[in-house]
Amino acid sequence: xxxxxxxxxxxxxxxxxxxxxxxxxxxxxxxxxxxxxxxxxxxxxxxxxxxxxxxxxxxxxxxxxxxxxxxxxxxxxxxxxxxxxxxxxxxxxxxxxxxxxxxxxxxxxxxxxxxxxxxxxxxxxxxxxxxxxxxxxxxxxxxxxxxxxxxxxxxxxxxxxxxxxxxxxxxxxxxxxxxxxxxxxxxxxxxxxxxxxxxxxxxxxxxxxxxxxxxxxxxxxxxxxxxxxxxxxxxxxxxxxxxxxxxxxxxxxxxxxxxxxxxxxxxxxxxxxxxxxxxxxxxxxxxxxxxxxxxxxxxxxxxxxxxxxxxxxxxxxxxxxxxxxxxxxxxxxxxxxxxxxxxxxxxxxxxxxxxxxxxxxxxxxxxxxxxxxxxxxxxxxxxxxxxxxxxxxxxxxxxxxxxxxxxx
Length: 408
Known about the structure:
By secondary structure, this protein is of the alpha/beta class. About 35% of the residues lie in helices and about 15% in strands. The chain contains 15 helices and 14 strands. It has helices at about 40-50, 80-95, 110-115, 140-160, 175-180, 195, 200-210, 235-245, 265, 275-280, 285-295, 305-310, 330-340, 350-355, 355-365; strands spanning about 10-15, 15-20, 25, 55-65, 75, 100-105, 120, 125, 135, 165-170, 215-225, 250-255, 320-325, 345. It has an eight-stranded parallel barrel with strand order 3-4-6-10-11-12-13-14, surrounded by six helices. A three-stranded mixed sheet has the order 7-9-8. Strand 13, helix 13 (about 330-340) and strand 14 (about 345) form a beta-alpha-beta unit. The relative contact order is 0.15.
């Protein structure tokens, strides 16, 4: 008997949480927390997506420690942030949506100028984009990072979040352990893919132990990062199966790409070299104009561009729901995801362009996003993330603050 795919605009269950629909606002670094805490600007930003119809909005990027920051203006998940986080979750709930906190440790991407500490990696490593040296993380520090993810998840639950998203992608610290290019350890965290998957499994296990069934636990997992000799889909499938068998996750959002090199593998489409050069120090601008496309990579945009890789995870999941990401811009794309066996979809740039796109699609199935995939929104994270084609942003006027966050 043929089973009909679920209606993406009907309520759906994600772990202990009931969402009003199956569409999630993907994590996009916001640059709206200049002092590392919740601001009225950040609240307005996420409330707008809630009012626009998403089932859940994702707050990014929430550092599990100050040493895990990737850029200025990011929320640090400590008890001092609790009051502001409560205001944020209340505002989103009041607008009818659920809210998730993306928890991460930047690892090789954490700049020493910001954190005051040398970045850590599974093994000694030089970031090919920043040329920054990263030292090998000690085993006692690994244990501390696992505890920090648990503590951050506890704060998220106490603050009223409905879910946490564990950032296991883009060669941030947990993801870098999965990469044979970066992880050359000879202890139980290195070697074959089962050992290299140990850290993400232990983080997910600790978070589940801490939050129980109070909130949903999601992991954002790289299927591949586009770097030769690094994460590839055969090993990513094994990591996903191990996490699935552990039963610690409610859902897994599948992603691609790296924050270390060739970031356009994640985004696809136009490469905004000129715009990136304009926000760099004058001495670096000629080099960015000359080498920017080579460093960032160039990959054509296609609708549903992660689907061909992501569909390979559908038949191997037993306990964990799957979230499809990448090139989802209209109702047909959402429904395609449901037909392919995904439980939810996540949208990023399309919602930056039109925060009310979900409401529009629910009313008119022919509505298509006005996003042109020019990727100039990538550059706005040096101030406050927004769509450059809509200067009158419905989530607030654009006033830059110091930030170098990435858009996911």
